[in-house]
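Hi everyone, sorry if this is the wrong subforum. Our group has a chain we'd like a structural model of before ordering constructs, and none of us has done structure prediction before. Sequence below.
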Amino acid sequence: MDDRQLRGVFDFALMEALWEARSWRTRIAEAEAAYGPSRAPAWVLSSHDQPRHRTRHVDREDRARVAAAVLLTLRGMPFVYAGEELGLGDAVVPPERRRDPLGRDGSRAPIPWTAAAGHGWASPDPWPPWPPHASTRNAETLRADEPSILWLYRRLIALRRTHPDLVSGDLTLLDGPREVLAYRRGDFTVLANFADHPVRVPYRGRVLLTSGREGLTDDTLAPCTAVVVAGTR
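Answer:
Right subforum, don't worry. Here is the predicted structure as tokens:
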């Protein structure tokens, strides 16, 4: 078959990774080796067949933000599953409301568009139930809150569009502390601290984006935080 007919295949490696820098690094390294420089992975964190990554990583906003920063700075094609940009977790679906025999109903919950009851849908009681915290994790509320995860996704996508190195440039995995996933994309370095404590890293530069309120101060990366750094030394 002419390989031009198949432009991208979902790579599920990150959906299977533990919340450890070395686990993510291993899967990224394996993908880079498998695809080679002439092809690129199609990365996904969640899908309608798997628990959302926020749920898999114990419903922590900081972890969801780090995962977003990594997804949107890797080499290849990033795919955002509907609602990831709102930081949604899986709905809790009682047994009597489950329809999928494999129990995948939770990740298929409707997207909350507004904060009001019904969340922008015609039915106030849809199948399956709303995802957790729908009154605050909805498009209307997060659009009005610039520090929100929705705006982090917007900033990450804008950064990709502005800097070709983050789209088509090479990816080089870097050495660093075991808690930190580090890689270079052209003139940029991405550092992701998977630990719940600050970590000293051997990289400095101008921080273009941080996943949290803190980032890289001198040579110390804040807990559970990812940064994109330019002019690294």
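For your construct planning: The CA atoms of residues 34 and 91 lie 35 Å apart. The chain has a mean pLDDT of 93.
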